[in-house]
Amino acid sequence: MDVFQNEICQVYNDDYTKVIGDLKFDYIITDPPYNIDYHYPDYKDKISEEEYINLLRGMKGYKSVVIHYPEGICNYVCPALGRVKKCATWCYNSNVPKQSRSIAWFNCSPDFRKVTQPYKNPEDKRIKERVENGHIGSKLYDWWTDIQLVKNVSKSKAKSFTNQIPQKLLERIIILTTKENDTILDPFFGSGSLYFACKSTNRRCIGIEKSNIHLQSFLERIEQEED
Question: Which one has a higher pLDDT value, 38 or 6?
């Protein structure tokens, strides 16, 4: 069922495995449920390993970028989608034991030249010469420590959604992986962070979400943006 549509995004309330074959898109970028018994209000985040792999297998064959814990990439995502083209690590400060997640590319590769970062040795003679010649930094490394989790007090935090992926993280993945006007699918749309990331990077997106509560969080974020 179509629950939202504008010039940037179309959102469906459905099981993605039932509709993905009918949709046209260029890439998948998603942060799926991790199957770790997280307490979602209307979704059971603890199914058998076989069921979980089968759930993810609906994305097999597509150009996909998946955000997950390292063990999840190894044990579930790779068995579902196949060989990884590239991996990066996203590290963040938090009060929980797990303080990093993996970002894995399947059937596509990022171009780390599209995002620069400050030089590590700005006083080095060679680096000074590069700066004098107009270079502003080196290409991005595969270890990201400059993007933090969305805090509960953040203005961008969806009030009724707990596990929100930072918009800045999605923007970076989008820029590294896609080109302007591409259409990106998130089959686990959640509170719709991909929508805001696509809007700021001149991409289009399709969201699919089974949870009515999560979809309501997205619609609330849209209303807040318009206020």
Answer: 6
Q: Domain 2-226 is of which CATH architecture?
A: 3-Layer(aba) Sandwich (3.40)
Q: Which residues face 11 on adjacent strands?
A: 4, 207
Query: Using an 8 Å Cβ cutoff, are 131 and 119 in contact?
Result: yes
Q: Which of 220, 217, 218, 223 is nearest to 205 (CA)?
A: 218
How far is it, in rounded angstroms, from Cα 9 to Cα 208?
Answer: 11
Report the 10 Å Cβ neighbour count for 47: 14
At 213, is the secondary structure helix, strand, or coil?
A: helix
Percent composition of the chain: helix, strand, coil (DSSP 3-state, to 5):
35, 20, 45
Q: Is the pLDDT of residue 158 over 70?
A: no
Q: Cα 20 to chain center, whole Å?
A: 18
pTM over 0.85: yes
CB atoms within 10 A of CB 213: 14
Torsion of CA 191, 196, 198, 200, to 10 degrees: -170
